[in-house]
Amino acid sequence: MTDSQNKNYIIALDQGTTSSRAIIFDRDANVVCTAQREFQQHYPQAGWVEHDPMEIFATQSAVMVEALAQAGLHHDQVAAIGITNQRETTVVWDKISGRPIYNAIVWQCRRSTEICEQLKRDGHEQYISDTTGLVTDPYFSGTKLKWILDNVEGSRERARNGELLFGTIDSWLIWKFTGGKTHVTDYTNASRTMLFNIHTLEWDSKMLEVLDIPREMLPEVKSSSEIYGRTKSGIAIGGIAGDQQAALFGQMCVEPGQAKNTYGTGCFLLMNTGTNAVKSTHGMLTTIACGPKGEVAYALEGAVFNGGSTVQWLRDELKIINDAHDTEYFASKVKDSNGVYLVPAFTGLGAPYWDPYARGALFGLTRGVRVDHIIRAALESIAYQTRDVLDAMQQDSGERLKALRVDGGAVANNFLMQFQADILGTMVERPQMRETTALGAAYLAGLACGFWGSLDELRGKAVIEREFEPALEEACKEKLYAGWKKAVSRTRDWEPHEESH
Ligand SMILES: Nc1ncnc2c1ncn2[C@@H]1O[C@H](COP(=O)(O)OP(=O)(O)O)[C@@H](O)[C@H]1O
Ligand SMILES: O=P(O)(O)OC[C@H](O)CO
How many CB atoms lie within 10 A of CB 470? Predict the structure, then answer.
């Protein structure tokens, strides 16, 4: 048996907002083994979110070792690693010591709101939208990176001298896994930085100048499916994609018009638009995704900041549930939310509102409201936010979705999926294979090293486990949704502007 025949597995490393996971796939793209570790969230101020990059690397390395050990595999048996990651989260590290100079500033963090306001005052909003496909919001890496360079003493100078490197989580992990040899990212992650021209596929000189970012610290940008380097143990790293683009690929939405919604910490609805970089007039982002071979394709994206995190808030802060799974039981105990709306604008509102000043609120409280109603309202808020996004995206794309493909941790919740179908008036399709993010990264890595010849070999994998049919009558659906829109309008522009930075 030759060496390559002996390599019968691909490992996907899925570095998410709340946990690091490693998933091993066999040649039939079946999951052989999964290992997962949660890591600490840091909230140093209201609206700020940080991670420790060393903890991210430590948990990600640990789960890879754990998964291999559980499966009884040696690293020699792995053909390649695919990396997929929470996007936008920004790390700056010292090239020599290999240590970050500041905690990672997480995609949800609002600390660069004032930098965005300045960009708007200076008239850069249109340029940012035309060039990077993004809205001027603290969500993206560019203003987070500027914040670090402005606030960590001497860092801009050190970056100019080539002593510091910048990366999103994919770059950070690859740099660490290759022992400091490889400093790369891929087009999908680069397209989330606000520093990258999505049309010419290059770092954008004007954005670097406007944000005063030294070019020396940027990673080389590569395709999503190629061999970038090897881990210290010799495994090829062959795929990189931001987690939402990886999920789109894993759901095989590689042709124009195909879309998926992922329900994780946030909710991310992406629609592939092929070679056409569609410009939104309804608050969607234009972003880079992957075509059938992992090549550059464009997508429209609606990003909702707080989806499953709303359920975590019920569990960790309010402590009214023990486990995310219990929400289904409590929400189903009551016939409706009793007029309660929860708007989880904990870190402002993303698409289609883009309001960093919005803050969360509960509306419609009366004396008869019980915890069950609040739990139900929390789940309903996830579905309402998805409706906001889908309505906007359908107006931009001119396409009406026949069915919404879903994935992510929260799709296990049958109540949520049914309410989603009801409030959209559209069928919701839940796949049998829920690990679509990891699967997408595995496919990209497997295609790069010839483990799989083409996606066509794997089409049979896209099996629907359950369809949720809309069952709510039109008038009722629209009345509920009108209540949601009213609630959202009351949360807008809540935080005073001068206190947001
Ligand atoms: N049964 C459930 N009902 C509702 N929400 C759930 C359920 N299971 C998990 N979640 C939520 O889904 C999220 C985890 O999904 P995952 O896709 O792993 O997220 P991420 O990649 O963002 O870390 C958590 O925010 C959790 O609260
Ligand atoms: O870690 P997730 O799955 O919540 O995804 C985070 C997104 O990539 C942020 O843009």
Answer: 17
